[in-house]
């Protein structure tokens, strides 16, 4: 029997998934038998290659389109790690329904569950404010959740611009200020933020945007 590959699927990898591409190149050089798929609605691989001067290696597959459909095309139980960094909130809000996209997120979890290899993990990075929402849906899909906050150092050194954007307290202050300023009714928006902070038991408005890691695994059969 040949050696197995370790398969990584990144959902919502962004327009220029430079980090994932570099990981694939490095794995190729070291012969660590890792295979990467990047899926995103706005993925631009030719642009990424032109910008970085990198060459697309054979162990890197790019899918421009919905991550759910890209996952649907994978073999059952084939992926060792499915990762989504600051993607699920976009998926949730794309669906213009009263349910804030819950159905689409449910579909994503169900498909990830089908495609995870035994002992595989689905790892999400999200804002602290959305933790309970995503953990609840993940539990309903049958996942066992674990979560922790990212350290400032981890967030600062992340490949993902969306994670780096919320890595420090000062950056999160700027996000809140911006949210309040950019609305027709700033005091109403401020009250919403205040309410959200209190309802989540947080002491500071900026904690809403702290980056957290949610690791999901399936129970052993
Ligand atoms: C906030 S950005 C994060 C990008 C990158 N992961 C990062 O951390 O910088 C969210 C990304 O999710 C992508 N996205 C949203 N819904 C998606 C879907 N249904 N399928 C694939 N990608 C999606 C968007 O196109 C966008 O690039």
Structure description:
This protein has 221 residues and is of the alpha/beta class. It has one domain (6-156, 210-217): Vaccinia Virus protein VP39 (Rossmann fold), CATH 3.40.50. Helix content is 43%, strand content 23%. The chain has 10 helices and 7 strands. It has helices spanning 18-30, 45-52, 67-72, 88-94, 102-115, 131-140, 152-156, 161-164, 169-181, 186-199, and strands spanning 6-11, 34-40, 60-64, 79-85, 116-127, 144-149, 211-217. A 7-stranded mixed sheet has the order 3-2-1-4-5-7-6. Strand 2 (34-40), helix 2 (45-52) and strand 3 form a beta-alpha-beta unit. It binds S-adenosylmethionine.
* Overall CATH architecture: 3-Layer(aba) Sandwich
What is the CATH homologous superfamily assignment?
Vaccinia Virus protein VP39
Bound small molecules, deduplicated? S-adenosylmethionine
Predict the CATH topology.
Rossmann fold
Number of domains: 1
Structure summarized in a few sentences:
With 221 residues, the protein is of the alpha/beta class.
